[in-house]
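The following record pairs a protein chain with its ligand, nicotinamide-adenine-dinucleotide.
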Amino acid sequence: QTTKKPPPTPSPLRFSKFFQPNMRILVTGGAGFIGSHLVDKLMENEKNEVIVADNYFTGSKDNLQKWIGHPRFELIRHDVTEPLLVEVDQIYHLACPASPIFYKYNPVKTIKTNVIGTLNMLGLAKRVGARILLTSTSEVYGDPLVHPQPESYWGNVNPIGVRSCYDEGKRVAETLMFDYHRQHGIEIRIARIFNTYGPRMNIDDGRVVSNFIAQALRDEPLTVQHPGTQTRSFCYVSDMVNGLIKLMEGEHTGPINIGNPGEFTMIELAETVKELINPKVEIKMVENTPDDPRQRKPDITKAKELLGWEPKIKLRDGLPLMEEDFRLRLGVSKKI
Ligand code: NAD
Ligand code: UDP
Ligand code: UDP
């Protein structure tokens, strides 16, 4: 005896092959520097709906002005240390101050943002089955004893120093990501971001590229912190955003370094800014802060091989783009 299969129930429009539901994406920290550029890129795709959750500590609504009121965009004033209930498919978790001046301003809050904030976003990812990407940092390598830094290097971090709220906070955030992945099967992605620069950085944010450009435009001395031989490797923000999206869309959990391997001493950076923006400006040596990493350069072999990503914009090409934005915001026009 054979049982006759009932005819298939007509599928609702939502599941028909002609209808692809929109991808709903949460960006925490989306009113900040990298976050707002990421939102711009995500909004280019008409199939994306973007929700930003931000407490405006270091970010601003101005960075998202062009999207406010757009039917595929939503902006929520929200602190990630509090639970958040939304229904989304992907979470880009960026919320956290990134400039040393700001993350040291209220270090306990920085730890809470990294630990409780990431825990909440993982709880959310678990409840709704979303994939989550954490923007970790090259600071997890501390003052590195291996150079350049591959992802396999465990780092050299002072657990009780003034930078630890950020470095150790991000290290715990990475641990939480992997524990939720192993214990609850959450789909995770971890990007270890190296120093990034570009338009929309806070003018008085305190980071080195924004400081030097603002100083050059205001005819103030460029403040190189002692000894000036310490190095950083600077990635332009559009390259960074492309790398983050490739990581989210790819098959690899990471951690994967996303950064530009072009390495410069702070004296070289000051000289380049002077040459390109204001040849008359003075370069002044000032005192440094504790635990400043002496060298930093990403090994991006993994990003190249696993994501097919590498940065395209050289420092000398990126600085003028940032200069243009800073001139507009500071109201300093170019002398011809
Ligand atoms: P940013 O300070 O411009 O942006 C951070 C955003 O997070 C801001 O809009 C801020 O208001 C928001 N935020 C902070 N605490 C929050 C909280 N508790 N709840 C909700 N929102 C909160 O910094 P950025 O340069 O755009 O950095 C973005 C992410 O990338 C951060 O996670 C940072 O750690 C990471 N990162 C950046 C760099 C870099 O060079 N820019 C390097 C390594 C890692
Ligand atoms: N959480 C959240 N949004 C959600 C689901 C969870 O913010 O949609 C928070 C929740 O408040 C908790 C954290 O995420 O503090 C971790 O959630 P999980 O379910 O993993 O742990 P539990 O609630 O069982 O401690
Ligand atoms: N720095 C500097 N002058 C400044 C600000 C920073 O020489 O006005 C140096 C700082 O000592 C560090 C490097 O620039 O060695 C990068 O500092 P930043 O705060 O931009 O980022 P970090 O990589 O330390 O998080």
